Amino acid sequence: MARGLNKVMLIGHLGNDPELRTTASGQSVVNFTIATNENFKDSSGNLQEKTEWHRLVAWGKLAEICNQYLKKGRQVYVEGRLQTRSWDDTKSGEKKYTTEIVCSDMQMLGSQGHTESNPQHDERQQVSTPQREYQPNSPAAPSVPMLENDKDDLPF
């Protein structure tokens, strides 16, 4: 039986430039927001658009890469997990909460020079956290040879 799944996948546009900080232990952390849009027809049949804003946080090398390459308005694909954290507000003394996406993978979509008249100028770059370094389009991607005996055990 599955214990649970906490996975988020989004494609959206950055609402601001990433903000890079360094923790007391020297680890890089970056915060940024992305907007996703949904189009739908209301009860009157009019086309409506709804924008949802998402807070993201990335750590380590991924944070540094996000800070270096992501800019406001850039389209990006991100994967991660939802996390809710709390803290005590020093001014009011009340407990505050925020829910954010802890980013584990990021792929830049489009480019600064991408236009409708030049669709070939579409730059894509995927960046992952260290535990998921494998990138399928990478020329250095590891290949796993199939053993001759394994072919007979496949259900298809």
Q: Give the overall form.
A: globular
Oligomer: single chain
**Unreliably modeled segments:** 113-124, 130-156
Total helical elements:
1
Q: Give a count of the beta strands, DSSP E runs of length 2 or more.
A: 7
The class by helix and strand makeup works out as mainly beta
Could you describe the 3D structure shown?
It is a single chain. By secondary structure, the chain is mainly β. Helices cover 6% and strands 45% of the residues. It has a 5-stranded mixed barrel. A hairpin with a 6-residue loop joins strand 5 and strand 6. It is globular and about 55 Å long. The C terminus is likely disordered.
Which features characterize this protein?
single chain, 156 residues, mainly beta, five-stranded mixed β-barrel, 1 helix, 7 strands
Quick recap:
With 156 residues, the protein is mainly beta. It is built from one helix and seven strands. The longest helix has 10 residues.
How do the helices and strands line up, and which of them pair or pack?
Layout: E1 8-14, E2 19-22, E3 28-41, E4 47-59, H1 60-69, E5 75-88, E6 95-108, E7 125-128
Parallel strand pairs: 4-6
Antiparallel strand pairs: 1-3, 1-5, 2-3, 3-4, 5-6, 6-7
